[in-house]
């Protein structure tokens, strides 16, 4: 699934809305940790493309085809399914994580991506580049159990508060 992004800061909100609608179409609730994290990552990567390149970009989402399997009690957890987000732009300049000071109002985007994504990176694409990240969608946890991928949803809140 792809969405063309114009070099306009208002496109960030449109990209979030588009991504939410794609997730909802797959039965992924807006308050599910995967959805909340993915929307934040969309916001960060699209913002970077719009602000730092001033050129059109392309947002790509590769999503699983349905809800994650439920692991029966006593069974081994099912493997996670990977969700991939990519933002391709026409700038060949490599993304560079910055070290933002406590009072800085920007410069934390790639640090957030690094904290929240299971994997991320970038690669040349045509005359530009593609910045990508992946999230592992875990099987539904049993009551009181940790999700199959081992990440507690509350951990995201801690990461966000540390990043700001």
Task: Describe the overall structure.
The chain is an alpha+beta fold and 164 residues long. The chain is built from four helices and five strands. It has helices at 11-25, 33-53, 109-116, 154-163; strands at residues 2-5, 57-62, 81-89, 119-125, 128-137. The protein has a five-stranded antiparallel beta sheet with strand order 1-2-3-5-4, with helices on one face. Helix 1 (11-25) packs antiparallel against helix 2 (33-53), helix 2 packs antiparallel against helix 3 (109-116) and helix 3 (109-116) runs antiparallel to helix 4. It is globular, with a radius of gyration of 16 Å.
Q: Tell me the series of helices and strands, N- to C-terminal.
A: EHHEEHEEH
Span between termini = 31 Å
Domain module tally: 1
CATH C-level category: Alpha Beta
Specify the number of helices: 4
| Biggest beta sheet summary | 5 strands, antiparallel
| CATH H-level superfamily | Histidine kinase-like ATPase, C-terminal domain
Which blocks of ≥5 consecutive residues have pLDDT under 50? 66-72, 139-164
Please give the radius of gyration in angstroms.
16 Å
Q: Mean of the pLDDT scores?
A: 78
Strand content: 15-25%
CATH architecture title: 2-Layer Sandwich
Helix content: 25-40%
**Sheet/helix structural class:** alpha+beta
Dominant shape: globular
Q: Within the CATH hierarchy, at the fold level, what is the topology?
A: Heat Shock Protein 90
């Amino acid at each position: 699934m792809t969405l063309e992004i114009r070099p306009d800061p208002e496109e960030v909100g449109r990209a979030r809305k588009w991504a939410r609608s794609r997730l909802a179409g797959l039965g992924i609730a807006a308050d599910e940790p995967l959805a909340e994290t993915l929307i934040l990552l969309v916001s960060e990567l699209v913002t970077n493309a719009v602000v730092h390149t001033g050129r059109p970009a392309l947002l790509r989402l590769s999503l699983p085809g349905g809800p994650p399997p439920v692991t029966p009690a006593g069974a081994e957890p099912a493997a996670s399914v990977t969700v991939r987000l990519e933002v391709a732009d026409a700038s060949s300049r490599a993304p560079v994580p910055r070290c933002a000071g406590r009072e800085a109002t920007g410069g934390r985007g790639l640090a957030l991506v690094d904290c929240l994504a299971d994997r991320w990176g970038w690669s040349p694409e045509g005359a530009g580049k593609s910045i990508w990240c992946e999230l592992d969608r875990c099987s539904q946890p049993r009551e009181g159990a940790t999700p199959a991928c081992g990440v507690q949803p509350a951990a995201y809140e801690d990461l966000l508060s540390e990043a700001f």
